[in-house]
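Researcher: I'd like a structural prediction for the single chain below. Treat it as a standalone chain; there are no partners to consider.
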Amino acid sequence: MAENLTRRALLGAAGAAVVAGVASEAALAAEGKEAPKGGPIKIIGLSTSPRKGKTTAAALQVCLDAAKAVGPNVEVELIELAGKNIPVFDPAAPASGDFDQVAAKLTDPKVAGIIVGTPVYFSGMSSLCKAFLDQCMAFRKNNFALANKVAGVLAVGGVRNGGQELTIQSVQAALLCQEMIVVGDARPTGHSGATLLNTGDDISGDEFGLSTARNLGRRVAEVALRVAGAAR
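Model: Treating it as a single chain, here is the predicted structure.
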């Protein structure tokens, strides 16, 4: 019994230390003073819309801008799959097309976080997003090359409740199979991910959706910095 009490006290103290550390980091971030030790990390925004430079890419850029603002050690990059050859995955006749080029960027050790963005089609992800996620079978065969990278998901729909959350959850399920650390958007919105409304090929009027994108980008960057710091 005494041993159990001692262990509980130790775990409680450790938990309190973690909470205190997180609170301290949050305070620094709020003041714009976060400057973690170690080299820079990179957050990649991956747009799986078949339309280049449209609302999914714009929403991801909002995420990336928020991620970059977390601290000077955060670098960002937007990758669009539009126009690239990402073939349907066929295990009987594998063909990777341009996937290998994208994979090389995602598996760079400097990349600590990936935010996947997709438009919503019939309450689901784009076919390009699905093809990409299926091609990610290659990562599982390569010693789970995406394991322990932080992942967030963003979805852009044509109406406010057009299946964005369903889409996000289906993408998250695939990313969990890669042993990624999946996070949602941060407080005060604090749900499964970034959910945006596309009105006439424009997201600029969706202030709530933009806030979820900013919160998601910030959350991915903050967790990625903590994971990278713990690994060093």
